[in-house]
Amino acid sequence: MSKAARYEWRDQHAALNERMKGFQLNPSDEHMEAVLAEMRAYAEAARNGNIDIPQSWTSYD
Predict the structure, then answer these.
(1) Is residue 58 part of a domain?
(2) Is 20 exposed, middle or buried (0-12, 13-18, 19+ CB in 10 A)?
(3) What pTM, to 2 d.p., does this model score?
(4) What are phi and psi of 27, to 5 degrees?
């Protein structure tokens, strides 16, 4: 996986996490739809090969 691909994956993963945090803070239908849309976009990008998903990673959060 190239460094650029890893950064792209990290950015998309971070955006998904932020959407989920927003939903957890304010569990409204609007936030739920935003989370679902972000998850669908992530899954579609992975399915189409637009992003590479690393086989393993280390999280320090």
Answers:
(1) no
(2) middle
(3) 0.62
(4) -75, 75
What length does the chain have? Answer: 61
13 closest CA partner among 2, 45, 1 = 45
Q: Which residue, 14, 12, 19, 21, is CA-closest to 44?
A: 12
Is 9 part of any domain?
Answer: yes
Q: Is the dihedral of CA 52, 53, 57, 59 positive or negative?
A: positive
- pLDDT tens per residue, range 11-46: 888 888 888 888 899 889 988 898 898 888 888 887
Query: Alpha-carbon distance 29 to 31, whole Å?
Result: 6
Is 59 inside any structural domain? no
Domain count, the chain: 1
